[in-house]
Amino acid sequence: MDTQQISAPSRAPSPVRGDATPSSGVMHINSRHTSHFTVVGNHLAQHRELSLLAIGLATHIQSLPAGAKVGIKHLTERFPDSEARIAAALRELEVHGYLRRTRERLPNGRVITRTCSYNQPGSTNAHPAPAPKRRPKPSHPATVAAPTPTPAPRPATPYVPAPTAPKPPPLPQPTKPLPQLLHAATALLIDLHRRAPHITLTERDIHHLAPAVATWFERGTTPTAIRQALTNGLPQPLRFPAKFLRHRLIALLPPPTTPTYQPTPLQNCDRCDRAFRSPNPGNCHDCTADEPHLLSA
Description:
Oligomer: single chain
Radius of gyration: 45 Å
Strand order of the largest sheet: 1-2
Strand content: 5-15%
CATH topology of the domain at 42-123: Arc Repressor Mutant, subunit A
Order of helices and strands: HHHHEEHHHHEEH
Helix content: 25-40%
Distance between the termini: 186 Å
Number of strands: 4
């Protein structure tokens, strides 16, 4: 009759394993993960020098499969943070050894950025090891699978630098840079803007192009012909006027003028007064041939 009847527990059961119930702070209610989870060390999750964004970014990168894009552009599209904040967080991870970014040149000459994520900050100098290959299990206990022959390593592809663009041909230069030709060339280039408003040249451009225009003058081209050659059929829009004029001054350069033929002047023979052609005065051919006979007589 003195037995106490218990109809309810004295306190609610604790969701925390064990007997210890925290009086304040966080209480963990954990469920066991069997798939789609990532193991993150407390050295990262409770890092005292990394920002909260850097810790979360490192956790996200470690959860991605190999080969996933982790550039600043891709992370900005994935998260609402700005490029500046994501770039600063990536630098934090690099400083503390959780991330390493290196630039490599491929055999075709293209430069790429190689990113390595480390779940332990002490292994920043190690290269990621390839996943071990599993050997196939024998189909019958009595049969033993033959070892797979290791393929011969491929020879390293020699580095071939990317082809460089050919250098543009030099501007034509006058054979005799006369001051009057350079002055006329400078005046023509300054006046081009009035005839073609799209052509805007700086003082440096005019000084650079004036010798080529003087070469056109030297070869007998009139100012009207030069203006037409430089301003006809301008592309729209004309983004680089100086480069456009430079191309035309080289591509449309007229050939040099051929010197006029000047015949050998006429001379009068000192002995027979007969006319003959010679650069110097004296005797004609016949009188010169008779001089040895006259001397012998």
